[in-house]
Design a protein that fits this description.
The longest helix has 34 residues. 65% of the residues lie in helices and 2% in strands. The chain has one domain. It contains 18 helices and two strands.
Length: 477
């Protein structure tokens, strides 16, 4: 299916562009607001999107590695340029649904995943209505809506052939290669020092943790390209080597763990023991919480305020890591303890989306305070699942866990019932990325970020259409 609209010849691109440029110039003069000049390019882009939504979708994907945080006001920020493109693509998806109602009805959709997505959004709406800060919560709901529309529904709608799936791999990897090359060159100028890594990754990434996370989640795409391509296998091999080197130099321990998680996910899926891996992981996590909370045993791991510092040498950072005395681990304990204590009496609907930062400090334990406990960057609890429990209560956490379980189930079904090697590689790639994202969010909260959140909902969008085990190929392939 080609998502194109046959526009009336009277409304040609040249005519619409000329008319909108003229109207924009008039409005700029009358209102003395220069931004009306952008009306012409916006109309041109909208027309191009209506004629071929694939162009806007792949433009969004290509913009993700280049995007940077842009603070518009003290309280309002965005990721530029990918978030404005998300808004635009969400609007286009809406218009395409109005125009192509008959054709959309024929596209395969996984009703389990789609229903859970709607339930996820519905619970966010309800918890926003009951939020302690409704304005912030509804801003969160709006952002979540266009993430799902642009990345998830956009992927479901636009990835209508194997050719477009392969194009997705190229469009994500090629810009990231440029970004990685720039970062490695800048890092080389500092002697690849650990204390400079947070600086050299900017403005593309907030810090080395976000950089390593996005990098590791793109590795399965490079591996898929290597396995599927014959003529360009050498190029994908170079990309894999480049990304692995950059991953090591990111000095992100969480990203290294995520790489292992991705490998384990694919292995467990191939051996049909993915459910045991998931169950074992949940059991170990719950056991660790019970162990630390029993008899206030967690107090034995409180940091020494004077010695728990940011290390300038990576070897010192690693040494402090396995001793649980590094700054980031100590601060995570500080946030986690405060977060768990927050949940008492708020287990039904939580504090509301976006509500953690404004409520957590009275619940923290002073014995775990560190030099960064001031939290000037307004980061959250550093565990996405705990964050869901705090902000959306038990139902919000359970809905998201059900969504994850269903995603892994259908990825597993896709892999084992696929009729050819390419389909199995596609399924393994999606499963590996999901496994990595879950691992990363045990120590961070990245599902709401444009890069990791975008990749997560792209995986959801792929599985929305790839759920029928009797179907051996992507639609239109």
């Amino acid at each position: 299916m080609k998502a194109r609209v046959n526009l009336n010849p009277l409304f040609s691109l040249k005519g619409m562009l000329l008319a909108s440029l003229l109207l924009g110039a008039i409005l700029s003069v009358v209102t003395e607001q220069i931004y009306f000049i952008g009306l012409g390019p916006m109309v041109l882009l909208m027309t191009a999107g209506l004629r071929n939504i694939h162009f806007i979708y792949f433009l969004l994907l290509a913009s993700i590695p280049f995007s940077a945080e842009l603070q518009l006001t003290e309280t309002l920020g965005t990721d530029f340029p990918d978030e404005p493109i998300m808004w635009f693509l969400s609007l286009l998806v809406f218009f395409h649904f109005l125009i192509y109602r008959d054709k959309i009805g024929g596209i395969i959709i996984n009703k389990w995943i789609f229903s859970l997505l709607l339930l996820h959004l519905g619970w966010i709406l309800l918890s926003s209505l009951l939020s302690q800060n409704p304005l912030l919560s509804f801003k969160f709901l709006a952002a979540k809506s266009w993430y799902i529309l642009a990345f998830c529904i956009g992927t479901w709608y636009c990835l209508d052939s194997r050719k477009n799936f392969n194009r997705l791999v190229t469009v994500l990897l090629a810009p990231m290669c440029l970004v990685v090359a720039v970062i490695i060159f800048r890092h080389f100028q500092t002697g690849f020092s650990f204390d400079s890594v947070n600086t050299v990754v900017q403005p593309f990434f907030r810090n080395h943790v976000n950089y390593g996370a996005f990098l590791v989640c793109l590795l399965p795409l490079a591996v898929a390209g290597f396995m599927l391509s014959h003529k360009l296998r050498w190029l994908f091999a170079l990309i894999i080597v480049m990304f692995l080197g950059a991953l090591f130099l990111s000095y992100s321990r969480g990203a290294w763990m995520a790489l292992l998680a991705g490998v384990l996910t694919v292995w467990a899926m191939r051996k049909k023991v993915l459910h045991w891996l998931a169950g074992g992981s949940i059991f170990l996590f719950a056991a660790a919480i019970l162990f630390l909370s029993s008899g206030n045993r967690y107090l034995n791991y409180r940091p020494d305020f004077e010695r728990t510092i940011y290390h300038q040498q990576f070897r010192d950072h690693l040494r402090a890591t396995y001793r649980l005395t590094d700054l980031s681990t100590a601060e995570r304990f500080h946030r986690w303890i405060g977060g768990i204590r927050m949940t008492e009496g708020h287990l039904l609907h939580g504090y509301g989306p976006n509500g953690f930062y404004y409520a957590y400090k009275p619940y923290t334990v002073s014995a775990f305070q560190t030099y960064v406990s001031v939290n000037e960057e307004r980061s959250t609890v550093h565990n996405y699942f705990l964050l869901l429990l705090i902000e959306q209560g038990i139902p919000g956490l359970v809905i998201f866990l059900l969504l994850l379980g269903v995603l892994f189930y259908f990825a597993h079904q896709w892999y084992h019932k696929a009729s050819d090697r390419k389909e199995r590689i596609y399924a393994a790639t999606v499963a590996a990325m999901l496994g990595m994202i879950v691992s990363l969010n045990l120590l961070s909260d990245l599902v709401e970020s444009d890069k990791i959140g975008g990749l997560f909902f792209i995986c959801v969008g792929i599985l929305l259409t790839r759920h029928n085990s009797d179907q051996s190929a992507l639609p239109g392939s």
